[in-house]
Amino acid sequence: MARAIALRSDFSAADLRRLARHSRDAAQARRFLALAAIYxxxxxxxxxxxxxxxxxxxxxxxxxxxxxxxxxxxxxxxxGPTPLLCSATIWVMRRIASPEMFPCYDxxxxxxxxxxxxxxxxxxxxxxxxxx
Length: 132
Known about the structure:
three-stranded antiparallel β-sheet; elongated; mainly alpha; single chain
């Protein structure tokens, strides 16, 4: 069986409990308390039950805490889906729909473009011109 990853030596269980008490992020506080249980000599299994997570997640918390300190236990924003259009294509589309080129520009909330069809205000360009 693999050896457990050691926790940082510059924090103690009391330090983590103090950080949990002052944290405004509930998830971060829960992670602090789970790691404090490990500092107190508890097992990783006990910490996972305390944090209501799996052993792998506790291991991930230990790795992040060792690398980044308390800030490593804050939830990170997911990156989200990758855009369908590159920034250059979006720039061109905005230039096409500029107020000078398109008199009804103020009426359009946004431009959408799928890989197959450019849509304006939810309708296909081909539908507007009868080219479908």
